[in-house]
Amino acid sequence: xxxxxxxxxxxxxxxxxxxxxxxxxxxxxxxxxxxxxxxxxxxxxxxxxxxxxxxxxxxxxxxxxxxxxxxxxxxxxxxxxxxxxxxxxxxxxxxxxxxxxxxxxxxxxxxxxxxxxxxxxxxxxxxxxxxxxxxxxxxxxxxxxxxxxxxxxxxxxxxxxxxxxxxxxxxxxxxxxxxxxxxxxxxxxxxxxxxxxxxxxxxxxxxxxxxxxxxx
Length: 216
Hints:
Blueprint: H1 12-18, H2 24-31, H3 36-40, H4 44-55, E1 66-69, E2 72-76, H5 85-96, H6 98-109, E3 110-117, E4 120-123, H7 140-177, H8 184-201, H9 207-215
């Protein structure tokens, strides 16, 4: 039985099975590339030992701007100012049920390229109809790296938005103190949105450690 010992030996599809509620026999069979019949012939101790080893593989993150999956090259989003509202909404939606949709998030972040010369490349426009299935074969270390990069970028942008919002809030309060006045509902909405920004920015900071520990 070939048990993966490195994070890079796992695929995103493997992680999705490991993080699911699938039976242990199915998890071991999927990750070790064994049929159900082959797994059933193994001693239970061997199966449990394999699952324990898999669940404790050290996690590694490696980010690559350009990756190749099934012979096709994909480029990572590099201009976040061009990241559309639809793309942000889809990523947010997929994160609500994260693991079953993890490959769909990758299909938003990595897209086919219109051209690729050296380190320069241009991505095709997002259509929400991209085929996400190939990303289930994405190496786990590249998946972790892409996700970490995306979340860090997302948090930075939320913090920037929060800072801008706090400036607006300060201006509102100063205006109120000077006597020009601003409706209390405006101040309330501003502060509520600021709290929402803070909660969203800290949402995924320990996602992997929490998810994996809950499965062991």
